[in-house]
Amino acid sequence: MAQTNPVRSLLIVGGGTAGWMAATWLAGRLARQNIQITVVESPDIRTVGVGEATVPAIRDYFRDIGVTEAEVMAATQGTVKLGIEFRDWKREGDSFFHPFGLYGMPSRGVAFHQFWLKRRAEGDATPLAAYSLCTQLAMANQMMDPPVSPPNDLGVFNWAVHFDAGLYAQFLRRKATSELGVTHVDGTVVEVSKHPETGFLTGVTLKEGRVLEADLFIDCSGFRSLLLGQQLGVGYEDWTHLLPCDRAVAMPCERDGPLTPYTRSTALAAGWQWRIPLQHRVGNGYVYSSRHISDDEATATLISRLEGRALAEPNLLRFQTGHRHRFWEKNCIALGLAAGFMEPLESTSIVLVQSGVERLGALFPTLDFDPALADEYNRITTLEYERIRDFLLLHYFANRREGEAMWDQVRQVTLPEPLVHKMRMFASRGTMVRYEWESFHDPSWLSMYAGFEITPRAYDPMADYFTKPELDSAFSRMRAAITRARALAMSHEAFLSSLKA
C-alpha cells in the first residue's frame, strides 16, 4: 500500500539541547523522506543550560546520529560519568553511590542481592558497593573500557557523560546544518497561527515579519511551552506536593581537586547541591524549596560551598516539577522543558528528550494525524514521567534528616500506589518489581534501598541452597575479581587523554 499524505515540513520552535537533539536525530532518520526540517531559535532567549549530566542511554543517541563519545567529549569539555554519589541524604556524614552497573553474580536463578541479604542476616557487614566494579572505579577516580563480552556479571557496567550543555547544542547545530540539511533561522516568534476550523497549527510569525509554515511542529520553547501550553491550551500536572523543590540557583566555578568520574548530590537543609565536573570547570547548583529557604539564602549557601573561584554570576531558575497533561496535541509535540520538568537529581532531562524524539520516530504521522498515534505517544510518555517521579520520590521519602522542616515534610507525603507496591514487595523479602517503561532498572533501585538501609524482613529462601562456607568463598572470590579488574583501569584523566589520541 502506497504512503499517502506524507508530512513534508517540520518546524522546531526553540533550539538549545532539546531542539538540536530533535533536529539532528530526525534529520538522520527522515533523510529519505523528503522532509524539510527547520529550527527557529531566538537570540533573545537564554537557554537554561544546567542539564550537564546524562545517563548511559545518551551513548545510544551518539551512535544513532553517527558520532563517537570522543568527538562529543572533545567538543563539549566532557568527562566520564559512572554514576552519582549521594552525600548526607540518609543523614549527615553518610554517603552511598548509585552506579551504572551490576552488583555481584546471581546463581541458580537467584539474584545476587538475595545471597547478600542472607549474609547480612548472618552478621556480614560488607557493603553492597564492594560487589560493584563500577562503584569501585568511581570512588578511585578510575575508568576503563567496559569489556564487550565480560566473562560474568562482575564486569558489567556502563557509563554516561558530563558535558557543557551550551557547547553540546552548538555541536549538534553544526552537524545538523552542515551535514544533514537542517535549516537554522535566528528569530523570535511573536505570533502563532492556527487553522480556524481544526485548531491545528499552521505557522509562526517572527519579530521581523517573516512567516514560517509547516505541517508538523515540535515545541522546544522551554518553560514557556509557547505552542503546546500557550497556543493549544494543554494544562500542567503539578507534582510539587510530592517533590517540593521548585527553584535552583546555578553557578560554575574552577575545579580544586581530582577530576572525578561521577556526579555528586549533597543534601542540604532545604534541598540538595549538584556538583558536575567538566574539563574546564565544575558545574554547581542548589536545588531547593522556596517555602523553606529564600533565594538570597540559597544563593549565599551555594557561594559558600564552591570549591574554587566562581566563573559567573548566580543564575536563578524557577520551575514546577511535573508535565503537560498531553505531550502530543493535534500536530504539535513538546520536548524538553516545554513538555515537563523533572528536577535534575538523577539527570533525566536529556534522556526524556532522547526517548521523546525516538518515540516520535516510531509513531511518525502522516497529514491524516491518526489520533491513535498521539494517544499511544501520550500514554507511554506519561508512564515514563511517572516512573521517574517515583524513583526520585524514593530518594526524598527515605531520608532520615530529622529535625529539618523540608525533610521531615517529605517523609509524610502520601506516595503513589505503584511506588508503595514496589517498596512493600522489597520490604517483604527483597523482591524487585519492574513496571512498563521504567527508566531505572533493578540495580538502580537496589542502590537506593541499600544506601538508605531499607532492609527486607527476610530473604528469598532459595538463597539457602548454598552453605555459609560456600558463600564465604564465593563472595571472597568476587571481591578479588573486582580488585584484579581495577588493576587494569587507568585514571579518569588518562582515559580522557586516550580518547584524544
Please give the structural blueprint.
Elements: E1 9-13, H1 16-29, E2 36-41, H2 57-65, H3 69-76, E3 79-81, E4 83-87, E5 95-99, H4 112-121, H5 133-139, E6 142-143, E7 160-162, H6 165-179, E8 183-186, E9 189-194, E10 201-206, E11 211-213, E12 216-219, H7 226-231, E13 236-238, E14 247-250, E15 263-268, E16 271-277, E17 282-288, H8 295-304, E18 315-318, E19 322-324, E20 328-329, E21 332-334, E22 340-341, H9 349-362, H10 371-397, H11 405-410, H12 417-429, H13 442-451, H14 468-487, E23 490-491, H15 492-500
Parallel strand pairs: 1-2, 1-12, 2-8, 4-15, 12-21
Antiparallel strand pairs: 3-7, 4-5, 6-23, 9-10, 10-11, 13-19, 14-17, 14-18, 15-16, 16-17, 19-22, 20-21
Helix pairs in contact: 1-6, 1-9, 9-10
Q: Assign the structural class, choosing from mainly alpha, mainly beta, alpha/beta, alpha+beta, or little secondary structure.
A: alpha+beta
Q: In what range is the share of β-strand residues?
A: 15-25%
CATH-derived topology of the domain at 9-78 and 163-238 and 324-387: FAD/NAD(P)-binding domain
Q: Enumerate how many helices there are, as a single number.
A: 15
Q: Given this structure, which CATH class of the domain at 9-78 and 163-238 and 324-387 is correct?
A: Alpha Beta
Number of strands: 23
What value does the Rg take, in angstroms? 24 Å
Distance from N terminus to C terminus (CA atoms, Å) equals 50 Å
Shape, please?
globular
User: How confident overall, as mean pLDDT?
Assistant: 95
Instruction: Name the CATH superfamily assignment of the domain at 9-78 and 163-238 and 324-387.
Output: FAD/NAD(P)-binding domain
Query: Could you estimate the helical fraction of the residues in percent?
Result: 25-40%
Uncertain stretches of 5 or more adjacent residues? none
Spatial order of the strands forming the largest sheet: 5-4-15-16-17-14-18
Task: Please state the second-level CATH architecture of the domain at 9-78 and 163-238 and 324-387.
Answer: 3-Layer(bba) Sandwich
Characterize the biggest β-sheet.
7 strands, mixed
